[in-house]
Amino acid sequence: MLPVGKAMRVGLADLAPLSLGAAILGTGGGGDPTIGRLALQRQIARHGPPLVISLDSLDDDAFVIPIGMSGSPAVALEKLISESFADSVLRRYERLMGRAVDAVIPFEIGGVNSLIPLLTACATGLPVIDADGMGRAFPSLERTSFAISGVSPFPLVIINERSETVIVEAPTPLRGEQIIRTALVELGGACVSAKYPMSGRQVKHSAIAGSLSHAAGLGRAVLAARADKADPFAAILSFLTRQSPPVYGRVLVEGKITDISRDMVGGYNIGAGSLDKDDGDRIDFSFQNEFLVLRRNRILLAVVPDLICFLDRETAEPITCETLRYGQRVTVIGVRAAAPFRTSAGLAAAGPRSFGLPYDYVTLEALASLSSEPRLPAGDIAWTPPDL
Amino acid sequence: MLPVGKAMRVGLADLAPLSLGAAILGTGGGGDPTIGRLALQRQIARHGPPLVISLDSLDDDAFVIPIGMSGSPAVALEKLISESFADSVLRRYERLMGRAVDAVIPFEIGGVNSLIPLLTACATGLPVIDADGMGRAFPSLERTSFAISGVSPFPLVIINERSETVIVEAPTPLRGEQIIRTALVELGGACVSAKYPMSGRQVKHSAIAGSLSHAAGLGRAVLAARADKADPFAAILSFLTRQSPPVYGRVLVEGKITDISRDMVGGYNIGAGSLDKDDGDRIDFSFQNEFLVLRRNRILLAVVPDLICFLDRETAEPITCETLRYGQRVTVIGVRAAAPFRTSAGLAAAGPRSFGLPYDYVTLEALASLSSEPRLPAGDIAWTPPDL
Fold first, then answer.
1. Cβ of A162 and B171 within 8 Å?
2. Domains defined along chain A, listed by start
3. How far is B163 from chain A (nearest CA, A)?
4. Which end of chain B is more exposed for a tag (fewer CB within 10 A), N or C?
């Protein structure tokens, strides 16, 4: 990205690393950013490169709207062909609040949703804030650093490609999410959405800073390693270490997928599987849109909210839960969750128990350094999806 | 009702005739107004009688919102216990449109929805317009004189008793209705709703004038006949004849219910049945929330949008489609539909074919005066519910 004072322009050369980094941070979900990248390429050619501003350069009184897509990523991708579709939700939100939006920000940096605000920025000239609300992808509305900081998601606005619009307000974010899920199905499975209206001050207090440049840097490290025929996994870990402060991450396991099953439940892509290490050890995993947990029998290797990223063992190309298949050779890396998700409020929102897993969170670092690895509780440890 | 200049106050003495008349005009649907009447009684005791103004006294530039309940009448009635619930939708609509509402109006005069605007008027001091959008009850959103005149129903706002709010906009009223139906289920089956925002000029152009006083007059005629031990059906027909212009109506049939079946389909109360006349002739009928058609074999006796009202044979107490049961002795009267529903636009919206009936509309008057009664087309005349 080209620095412009405290701001940067996202040019055509940034798109490949940005979408690759975003796909890695998607931890199996968030949708494949490829089609989003193609749409963004067309928009940049038409309107010029969008402006990305740093979180600390944001005016305290700015009016900021997080935007992205809600619903099934697979359906969402097909609809992205119409770029102006992404602007419609911004315009409706402005009309609803009676106020012009000053900047947009991604809900999540993982997957296609990292690119939607950039698409909108091209057409509208609004800046995108270099930050997000997850530092990864999560399957639902409550799991944002905005919500953890006490920001209300309401009003929630979703619009489909036929301009069918649903606006929701509810006493709790969870009920808002339930009502929106129902409406999403009626509106065709995927919509552009806007929620968590914030002042600049609120965004600075709650957002995860530097997400877009982090994703682009991560992608750039992998692409450079590939070009140099170097080890892309070493490049990822080296990139994470060079951050300020350094981001903890490590290779968790290498192996071959030996089992995978998935189902659509309540609008979520839910499933589990296993992979065999070269030494024959079997590793199990489960997911709800994104990977939730990785374990060897009763020994926990990594668990949400920490990032569990399945990558192709040769190229480090990220593999989504939807495209994971028998026989794939993968390297799984773990990356520490963003700080807000390691607080008690963050873990209540996005920790293992929030997904119905029957045990508490242990950090990726603790799991690596403990002399005797923590054992999961006795009894049934099979994952039962929570009441969706 | 007590005249106040061009306006009237609805006092406690008006509630019994008004709710009786509204139940008759509900043509089997619209919900039993009894609980609404009790709620209104409490509100009048607390705030004094609400003001009802005539359609022609309305200011052209007034901002008018039709309000009522959407969803299952049975569920709606239980929720009416909290009167302030009805005001919430008005307040939300004002906030949404950035404009104070000057007057409210019922969507439909049939059933409980005739009383909701009066409830709101008590608490807010707003006047209610003596008019409505149906002159009866209909099962869905598109079937209003407002829509027939080209008024948009959007934005559609529904709110439940927990303040969960859904606002819908769509390219067509039909899609709006489909999206709202889905949301209604998620919101518990019944909500207060507001839609068709209008200027005073639009209301004057599109509403059916005098509906509230018409319902109250109809109810008063029945109550007076009962008190005088006179024939309540003669009183109804005499009342209709005395209107200016006279409203055509007649007794269609008397008999005993011999068959009734009903089912909930797509949120509608759908069913059919038959009754035996004293001479043994069998009469068939069908309904979708409200009665749709009455026929003797292939001979049509009455069909929507004309009103088909099932009344208790002794007391003329109206019987809803939900409470109709085997063995009930009924008198069925037909009343001509309000003028907007007899236009081609009105029949497209609310004629027999709009309900999936396989034949065209014939007026109640024509069915009475034709020397040889029109026969329905050969083939299957059983009613198949439309694609809901």
1. yes
2. 2-211 (3.40.1610.10)
3. 6
4. C
